[in-house]
From TrEMBL:
Record keyword Nucleotide-binding present: no
EC number, UniProt record: 3.2.1.28
Residues annotated as domain Trehalase-like N-terminal: 2-59
Organism: Kitasatospora gansuensis
Keyword Transcription found: no
Keyword field: Carbohydrate metabolism, Glycosidase, Hydrolase
Cofactor(s) named in the record: phosphate
Xref: Pfam families: Glyco_hydro_15 (PF00723), TREH_N (PF19291)
First-tier enzyme category under EC: hydrolase
Name of the molecule in the record: Trehalase
Gene Ontology process terms (BP): trehalose catabolic process
Catalysed reaction equations from the record: alpha,alpha-trehalose + H2O = alpha-D-glucose + beta-D-glucose
Pathway(s) where this gene product acts: Glycan degradation; trehalose degradation; D-glucose from alpha,alpha-trehalose: step 1/1
């Protein structure tokens, strides 16, 4: 059974990613791309749906309920050593590592067990893949390293293609040097296992039992190849490790952020890079599908696609921390994806710009802790969400302002988007939260329409780009007036979720951040205070909107509740800093940092009742605001230091 969401660490090669549990099991891996069917889908079901666990065969202290390690009957060498008799269903021992971490600022995971006989380390990574050529195939490398003593280990590999549905045909391929490879084939996929350890099959699972001594390193490699193509070369694991170390050293070396939050910022940047599909520049919202927002409920979605909103804000964070190449690549992706008539702009696309993201349910998967359905595809692709025009234009604007090489097509696209928005901003939409209830006049959507027009006016004023400047200035004023008249409740001194509504919405926290109103405007302060009052969880985080009305009826078309939305909680910290409540902002930010798991990763939401992470994982939409808030608080600290040379702590508004 899958562990808690925070028990997982991410490894990836910028084309796909895997989740590795603290017990040494890879429970999620889609091959060859982020959005391909999973080869290991144990995360959303059981071990029967695929996993690959490497860990000690005999840990010192197995927790209650852990599978007792035992030798398979077919292997005499192991049986001769006098190990415990095997229960017929035992696949592999599942015992949490005693320690784990990423190797420095990289995506190379190291887990260590103090086991019977000594200490052992397993190093897991996926080498960044070349974009073309024979070796442009996904690989997962697992190096078992003896740290001290002598430890008996087991690798248990159960491949189940097509999200746990298909048992592949697995066979050995003898090699001229006397060694062998193991290959699993079904339909379009083949997956090759290489390693020096002897393997054997039992219960439709491939095992290797071996011993590792201090200083010894035993490598395994899994390589995917289209099944109609010749066998891929067996990778040189140690050379791949050296290349991967160098790749991350170079990449992290470009980071311009040097403030007090360097560790969480860099880990978030590495995570965002891992979610970027290198061949096209598309960015997935998360590498998983259907990790529930409500454990046991139906709020389960496929995030392995590129949302314009999520990608645009990711781009902004990358640009502000020195990463221009990713920004340039995403701009190219955007231009290709939206090519054609902006009337047909989708709010999300596949990672290569695909438009067909039809949603369906995988009824053979039980779901994470029974959370059904498991969905692939995403019906939100067909929604109207007017805010994405604002987010995209804002990202293009920032790219321009930070000196990214001029691109006339991007300018042209921006002008076309505004021409579309001019005709459609008055319409109701599904809004930033993609609610599956009725369309409404969401205030956040209108605010972001204002952002799109505002930034385009600035583009025209600052560059040779041309457009009907006066007409668009009038449009900008009209949208502003409309929002302030219809989206603001003067009696309660707060903006509301939608025109004429009573509910609040945490996306309103963005009003001062995008410059729609200044932070010291009484309506802004009133809205921040109302959100703090009405949308806070008992532990001080923020819900994005109330999921139920006063009579207990669901308002977003879905049953159940959801956790605090981490992005919104970071936005609150930002706003508090903007209105001068810097100490409070910092306290909230640090509380948010404490929700990260031990390797620095955040899901989409936090379940305050269960005190655990929920939703897809790791989530770009959580790591981006983490970076943004860190930058703001760092700027606050800088302003503070220059204003307070004696170093005494005092709150002050800096923005
Ligand atoms: O919870 C309801 C909606 O959840 C998803 O949308 C959320 O994730 C998106 C990607 O990070 C984000 O852009 C959006 O703002 C979030 O609400 C899901 O994709 C939707 O289908 C679902 O209705």
């Amino acid at each position: 059974m899958a562990g808690r969401i925070e028990d997982y660490a991410l490894i990836g090669d910028m084309q796909t990613a895997a989740l590795v549990s603290r017990d040494g099991a890879v429970d999620w891996l889609c091959l060859p791309r982020f959005d391909s069917p999973a080869v290991f889908a144990g995360l959303l079901g059981t071990d029967e749906h695929g996993f690959w666990r490497i860990g000690p065969a005999e840990p010192v202290s197995a927790p209650a309920g852990a599978t007792v390690p035992a030798p398979p009957a077919a292997r005499s060498a192991f049986t001769d050593s006098g190990a415990i008799p095997i229960p017929p269903t035992a696949a592999a021992p599942a015992v949490p590592a005693d320690r784990r971490r990423y190797r420095g600022d990289s995506l190379i995971l190291e887990q260590e067990w103090d086991a019977q006989g000594g200490t052992v380390r397993v190093i897991d990574f996926m080498p960044p893949r070349p974009l073309a050529g024979l070796d442009a195939v996904p690989q997962m490398i697992r190096i078992v390293e003896g740290v001290s003593g002598k430890v008996r280990m087991r690798s248990a590999l159960r491949m189940r293609f097509s999200y746990g549905r298909v048992v592949p045909w697995v066979h050995r391929v003898e090699q001229p040097d006397g060694g062998h490879r193991t290959v699993a084939v079904a339909g379009p996929d083949s997956v090759w296992l290489d390693g020096v350890a002897e393997t054997y099959g039992r219960d439709l699972t491939t095992y290797a039992d071996f011993t590792v001594e201090a200083g010894e390193r035993i490598a395994f490699a899994l390589t995917w190849q289209a099944s109609h193509l010749p066998a891929p070369a067996a990778p040189d694991a140690e050379a791949m490790l050296a290349d991967t170390v160098e790749f991350w050293r170079d990449w992290v070396g470009q980071c311009t952020y040097q403030g007090p939050y360097r560790e969480p910022v860099v880990r978030s940047l590495i995570t965002l890079k891992a979610l970027t599909y290198a061949p096209t520049g598309g960015i997935v919202a998360a590498p998983t599908t259907s990790l529930p927002e409500d454990i046991g409920g139906e709020r389960n979605w496929d995030y392995r696609y590129t949302w314009l909103r999520d990608a645009a804000i990711t781009l902004s964070s990358l640009l502000r921390t020195g990463y221009r190449e990713e920004a340039r690549a995403w701009r190219e992706w955007l231009l290709r994806a939206v090519a054609g008539d902006p009337e047909n702009l989708q709010i999300m696309y596949g990672i290569a710009g695909e438009r067909e993201l039809t949603e369906s349910e995988l009824d053979w998967l039980p779901g994470y802790e029974g959370s059904q359905p498991v969905r692939v595809g995403n019906g939100a692709a067909g929604q109207l969400q007017l805010d994405v025009y604002g987010e995209v234009v804002e990202a293009l604007h920032l790219a321009h302002m930070t000196g990214l090489t001029r691109n006339d097509h991007a300018h042209l696209l921006q002008l076309k988007l505004i021409t579309y928005l001019e005709q459609h901003w008055r319409e109701p939409d599904e809004g930033i939260w993609e609610v599956r209830g009725p369309r409404r006049h969401f205030v956040h959507s209108k605010v972001m329409a204002w952002v799109a027009v505002d930034r385009t006016i600035k583009l025209i004023e600052q560059t040779p780009a041309e457009g009907p400047l006066e007409r668009w200035k009038a449009l900008r004023d009209e949208i502003h007036r409309d929002v302030c008249e219809k989206g603001y409740d003067a009696d309660r001194n707060t903006f509301t979720q939608y025109y004429g509504g009573q509910e609040l919405d945490a996306s309103l926290l963005l009003i001062p951040q995008v410059g729609f109103l200044p932070p010291d405007d009484k309506r802004v302060i009133g809205t921040i205070e109302a959100i703090q009052r009405e949308l806070s969880t008992e532990d001080g985080f923020v819900l994005r909107y109330p999921t139920h009305d006063d009579d207990g009826n669901n308002v977003d078309g879905l049953s159940g509740h959801e956790g605090a939305f981490l992005a919104c909680s970071f936005w609150l910290a930002d706003d508090l800093a903007m209105i001068g409540r810097v100490a409070e902002a910092r306290e909230l930010f640090e509380k948010l940092l404490s929700l990260r798991n031990d390797v620095g990763l955040l899901a989409e939401e936090w379940d305050s009742r269960a005190q655990r992470q929920v939703g897809n994982f790791p989530q770009a939409f959580s790591h981006v605001p983490l970076i943004d808030t860190a930058l703001r608080l760092t700027a606050c600290a800088g302003a503070y230091l220059s204003a307070q040379p004696d170093g005494r702590e005092r709150e002050q508004a800096t923005l």
